[in-house]
Amino acid sequence: MLDVKFIRENPELVRQGLINKNSQDIVDEIINLYEKRRTLIAKTEELKAKKNKVSAEIPKLKKAGKDTSNIFAEMKQVGDEISQLDGSLKEVEDNIENILRSTPNIAHESVPVGKSAEENVEVRRWLPEGFSFDNDFKVLDHVELGKKLKLLDFERGTKIAGSGFPLYTAKGATLERALINFMLDVHLQKHNYTEIMPPVLVNRDSMKGTGQIPKMEEDMYFIEKDGLYPIPTAEVPITNIHREEILSEKDLPIKYVGYSPCFRREAGSYGKDSKGFLRVHQFNKVEMVKFSFPENSYEELELMVKDAEDILQALKIPYRILMLCTGDLSFSAAKCYDIETWSPAENKWLEASSCSNFESFQARRANIRFKREANKKTEFVHTLNGSGLATSRLMVSLLENYQTPEGKVIVPKVLQKYTGFEILD
Predict the structure, then answer these.
(1) What three-state secondary structure class fits 6?
(2) Of 319, 343, 331, 336, which Cα lies nearest the Cα of 396?
(3) Are residues 27 and 165 in the same domain?
(4) N or C: which end of the chain has fewer CB within 10 A?
């Protein structure tokens, strides 16, 4: 959530930031509402001071035998006016909060300005030794491979739950589990994260805290009877671990990593690629979350991207890094890198991870602060998260890049101790 003080002090910067994010300009409306709030507070405080002063005089007047009935009537009228002003103040404050909760974060100054994904900027790419974009045999896509090798059964997944709910079978299920365990182990043992196994259902306050609600509510599944949401990403429960908390300065940075299934309705995704894993409603993901000092959160973002890259380099899967332009940034992000892996069958790059810095945007919504030891002042932390990684698109690239001319799939060397087998045939 944006800071009202920052909006008031930097109206043109915020206005341009919202334009760059293809968002509605709310600057003047917020400033006007804030001035109305200040006027209401001043008038309320003036009436309360008057009431308190007169109330203190009443006992003296009574003791002196004076009639206080007119004063009582006047104070009742003042009290009624105060109640009315309090109601108006709450209405204005609720209006301010509702506007801010539906207003996106503005982009960091280093983010390229652009309207859509076509204007994202490739930062770098990494290709395994000996890799070529040209294959000397017909490449089967992941759906064909999954069916041929009895790894995946999308048809029965659809029968069980509906389109977009994959069914892993036999060695396919083992490979998926191996991938998750490998990624967790790397982040724990090499990158020094603390492992979390979070709830996969969260309440509305948790969804508000990370910015999924109200803006993206139509893309969320919802269990109406219990008021709970199946999580779209482990970012939600892990970030909310410290909701309404004041952290100690010595605890920062905090680095969590956790596996979870993820659920997304993606109500606005009709017409997009939908084959196999290209667009699913349930998928698995290992998520990295950081709580950082404001002054070095962008250094932490670069480190997080490198942590995700380590996974792909160990798996020897070709990838590229994109810096998203302002118009393609998510609602809450101030800066984001997408990591895309190569699909030979689709002949294109597929998003497998996003690493984002939200600055204080989520922390302000979820009230996550820390206390400086030097001056004992509290500040909002900066929150970051990144997929480390999502397995669905990664599985596409793994199967397709490791297939042989005979239609078998070699298991990446780093996964073989987890799978117990070296080849899928």
Answers:
(1) helix
(2) 343
(3) no
(4) C
Answer whether residue 267 shows pLDDT above 60.
Answer: no
Strand partners, 229: 202
- Residue 37: give the domain boundaries: 4-101
CA 199, 202, 203: angle at the middle one, nearest 5? 150
Mean pLDDT of the 34-59 span = 87
Judged on CB neighbours under 10 Å (0-12, 13-18, 19+), 25 is middle
| Same domain assignment for residues 340 and 246 | yes
Q: Tokens 């069958």 correspond to what residue?
A: 345
Bridge partners (DSSP) of residue 152 are 168
Quote the pTM value.
0.92
Question: Are 151 and 171 spatial neighbours (Cβ–Cβ below 8 Å)?
Answer: yes
> Tell me, what DSSP letter sits at residue 172?
H
Does residue 67 register a pLDDT over 70? Answer: no
* Residue 10 sits in the same domain as residue 127: no
Question: Mapping DSSP to helix (H, G, I), strand (E, B) and coil, where does residue 24 land?
Answer: coil
375-395 per-position pLDDT tens digit: 999 999 999 999 999 999 999
Q: Are residues 19 and 130 in the same domain?
A: no
**What pairing do the DSSP bridges indicate for beta strands 254-263 and 282-292?**
antiparallel
Which residue bears the tokens 């010595």?
A: 250
pLDDT tens for each residue of 207-259: 999 999 988 899 999 999 999 999 999 999 999 999 999 999 999 999 999 99
Do 344 and 266 lie in one domain? The reply is yes
3-state secondary structure 111-150: CCCCCCHHHCEEEEEECCCCCCCCCCCCCCCHHHHHHHCC
Neighbouring C-beta atoms of residue 142, cutoff 10 Å: 26
Q: Where are the alpha helices (DSSP H) in 229-287?
A: 235-239
Neighbours of 226 (CB within 10 A): 9
| pLDDT interval class at 273 (50, 70, 90) | low
Q: Is residue 144 part of a domain?
A: yes
Percent of the chain with pLDDT over 70: 97
Strands 245-248 and 368-371: parallel
DSSP label at residue 106 = P
- Residue 71's pLDDT is 76
Q: Which residue has the tokens 């998520």?
A: 287
Cα–Cα distance measured from residue 271 to residue 289, given in angstroms and rounded to the nearest whole number: 32
Positive/negative CA dihedral, 319, 21, 13, 89? negative
